[in-house]
Amino acid sequence: RKEVEQDPGPFNVPEGATVAFNCTYSNSASQSFFWYRQDCRKEPKLLMSVYSSGNEDGRFTAQLNRASQYISLLIRDSKLSDSATYLCAVERGRRNNDMRFGAGTRLTVKP
Amino acid sequence: NAGVTQTPKFQVLKTGQSMTLQCAQDMNHEYMSWYRQDPGMGLRLIHYSVGAGITDQGEVPNGYNVSRSTTEDFPLRLLSAAPSQTSVYFCASSPWGGAQDTEAFFGQGTRLTVV
Questions:
Q1: pLDDT category, A51, cuts 50, 70, 90?
Q2: Measured between alpha carbons, how far is A3 from A90 in angstroms, rounded to an integer?
Q3: C-beta atoms of B97 and A95 within 8 A
Q4: What number of CA atoms fall less than 13 Å from residue A81's CA on the CB side?
Q5: Interface probe with B: pick from A5, A94, A99, most Cβ of B within 10 Å
Q6: How close does chain B come to A77, measured CA to CA in Å?
Q7: DSSP secondary-structure letter at A40?
Q8: Of the candidates B77, B18, B22, B24, which has an alpha carbon nearest to the alpha carbon of residue B46?
Q9: Is A32–B106 a contact, with Cβ atoms under 8 angstroms apart?
Q10: Nearest to residue B3, comparing CAs of B89, B67, B90, B114?
Q11: B interface test, pick of A7, A24, A97, A106 with most B CB neighbours within 10 Å
Q12: Does A27 touch chain B (CB under 8 A)?
């Protein structure tokens, strides 16, 4: 079993829809959590960090549930430009920057 | 601002050949790492380094060597290429220290095909 698991997708949604991705992690010592966005044939780029209290950045909301060991990403009012693969990332332990990624969830937003 | 630079961008190797993938960063980051990305598998950590002279193994280290002689450079060596090493390789760097926002900056990737 992979240390970080994601909904496999693909998710195909119309513009304006709300879509949610989940990600579970198995290492209870994990300290930091992130969502990355990866466009086709490009490198991953940080979308947002995930804080214990939950955090929001415009149309994007990230939440962390340490007890159940999962993180989520909610995208509201989807845009065509949101089409990409979304990767969750989990940093194992503290001060070691050993980061593990999920396999990614592909999102396609259609007109 | 170059960030993380990987070379080459594309490479075709024959089985058994060796080669070095180059990675350089100009952000004075302590931490550097190498990932491979395969369809359905996501990014898998090969090796990482928390500073010059220090390296450690990740999830899938077999068949790869690394060294970190300077803060800026972190080359990945394929000792004897195999078709199973066909993949897209990403180098990443980040500041080390365990801060909440330890964003990893990625290079543009190297697409490697082993025939």
A1: confident
A2: 9
A3: yes
A4: 1
A5: A99
A6: 26
A7: T
A8: B77
A9: no
A10: B90
A11: A97
A12: no
Query: For each of chain B's 115 residues, which pLDDT tens digit applies?
Result: 679 999 999 999 999 999 999 999 999 999 999 999 998 788 999 999 989 999 999 989 999 999 999 999 999 999 999 999 999 999 999 886 655 567 889 999 999 999 9
Inter-chain touch B94–A31, beta carbons under 8 Å: no
Phi, psi at B42, each rounded to 5°: 70, -160
CB B114 within 8 A of CB B83: yes
Residue A78 and residue A108 in contact, taking contact as beta carbons nearer than 8 Å: no
Report yes or no: A32 at the B interface, CB cutoff 8 Å.
Answer: yes
B104: exposed, middle or buried (Cβ count in 10 Å: 0-12, 13-18, 19+): buried
User: Which residue type sits at B102?
Assistant: T
Other beta carbons less than 10 A from residue B19's beta carbon: 15
